[in-house]
Amino acid sequence: MQFIIFIVFTLIVGIVAYLATRNTNENSEDGYFLGGRSLTAPVIAASLLLTNLSTEQLVGLNGSAYNEGILVMAWETLAAIAMVVTATLLLPRYLKGGLTTIPQFLERRYDTATKSITSGLFLSGYVVVLLPIVLYSGAVALIGMFDLTNVFNLGQGVTLIITVWAIGLIGSVYAIFGGLKAVAVSDTVNAIGLLIGGLMIPVFGLMYLGDGSVFSGLELVYANEPSKFNAIGSDDSAIPFSTLFTGMVLVQLFYWGTNQAIIQRALAAKNLVEGQKGLIFAAFIKILGPLIVVLPGIIAYTIFGDTLDASQADQSYGMLVNRVLPPVLLGFFAAVLFGAILSSFNSALNSSVTLFGLDIYKQYIKKDANEKQVVRAGKIFGIVLALLSMCIAPGIANAPEGLFGYLQEINGCYTIPILTIILVGYLTKYVPPLAAKLAMGLGVILYSFSQFFLKDFVISNGGTYPHYLHIMAILFLFNIAVMLLVGKLKPRSEAYVQAYTEQVDITPWKPVKLMGVIITLIVISTYFIFT
């Protein structure tokens, strides 16, 4: 019965996506890469949320909450403020320029070389880190939920390979052959299911602890370990409170405001009003994120705290699902989780296809390529990329413990340099291309030196080293100073002025600033509540 429900729900999502996209012109760049610039606010909001939420958060963040408590909610709640900043400051500029990719802006503001370097950094992050980890973590989650090793009567390694390739092939069909609109529409259906399914876990978990009463269960969870409900992290915690005002702000702004895999949904808006509505709606829902990706971890600690140690925390979410969810609902939740896995995979893959087709193929390989040729080249590249990620993913199982965290730290090599040159590019008029290249080069080199050499050297000699989020903030300020200095010494000959391409209406949504203030106040209030 569980498998039947899983297959039926998954097929429904596929059919809906097909029916919604069969009339979209996939042979044009806007049609394939941006869904014909036709996305509305509900689709944008749902796609943003589901692109972000996958097994890394459901399993990893709940695992962190198992160990650290509610303080890890910063990754969710502060994202809402970053969405507000994106909706009010960045998106109007993006849509005014008719952008398809973020690197396109960098080409107009600086030069082609800057755009190419940035596209290369984005693609490197997707290929080396994001795609294989999404496949691996998703496969592990499904294997544990359905006990696929015993179902297939195969070894753990073989089962992992089969599951990885199944996820990868289905995700590739959505992303490569359906374009962004197929991804976004399937996300919309899955987002509804994930919202329902994700909320079911803490509800059933609290009812399990409270003998049918949610409130009794919550009282028991709080009484078991009150310190788990303190949102203010100490200096030795995973998220010290001070980092919320330094690198955390920058990471969130990069992710929600400049990361191609995320912002591409808003770039596909039919107009600025729909794009801003989508971001604001998503921000409101994001505030509730801890109910799905933090509270279950604390509930799991109450149930399994005597049997699981800190190193096994990532197993807690799957164990909680199996313990508290009625068997009839397990197939539905597995299908929803499968949708979340596909969303993260096909969204990153679709963005990679976009970056390659527009910023590399058309720029360096075939400059006179028409739109149909660019789309075709992007699809071929996507197939190769998908196959490569499917080959790499099973190997993560043999990696040393903590590899996921290590790879996440690698992402800092390019997040801060890219964020720096985008913000300086929009906020100044005379900073030249040389400054952008210098900031990216120094940003990558200095961060890598800091985290993968200097940090180990200092700690091995008995010293203490700043949190990596603090290091990001320091390098961000340093990069800005370097760019402004170069701009002072060797400014552009002419001021940069962004042209309005008139591809979409950029009349703003009137309540956007008021909604932004309300969201910010709600986020701040949560820290007063959980202090």
Structural features, described:
The protein is mostly helical. The protein contains 23 helices and no strands.
CATH homologous superfamily caption of the domain at 2-14 and 36-205 and 252-398: Sodium/glucose cotransporter
Second-tier CATH architecture of the domain at 2-14 and 36-205 and 252-398: Up-down Bundle
CATH fold node name of the domain at 2-14 and 36-205 and 252-398: Sodium/glucose cotransporter
Number of strands: 0
Per DSSP, what share of the residues sits in E-state strands of 2 or more residues?
Answer: under 5%
Major beta-sheet overview: none
Low-confidence stretches: 25-35
- Quote the average pLDDT: 83
In DSSP terms (H or I, runs of 4 or more residues), the helix count works out at 23
How large is the radius of gyration?
A: 23 Å
Topology order in helix (H) and strand (E) letters: HHHHHHHHHHHHHHHHHHHHHHH
Distance between the termini: 45 Å
The level-1 CATH class of the domain at 2-14 and 36-205 and 252-398: Mainly Alpha
Class computed from helices, strands and strand pairing: mainly alpha
Helix content: over 70%
Q: What's the overall geometry?
A: globular
Protein traits:
531 residues; Sodium/glucose cotransporter
SSE blueprint and pairings:
Layout: H1 2-21, H2 29-33, H3 41-52, H4 55-68, H5 74-96, H6 102-109, H7 112-146, H8 148-152, H9 156-209, H10 214-224, H11 247-257, H12 260-267, H13 272-287, H14 289-293, H15 295-304, H16 316-324, H17 327-365, H18 371-392, H19 403-410, H20 412-427, H21 433-460, H22 468-489, H23 512-529
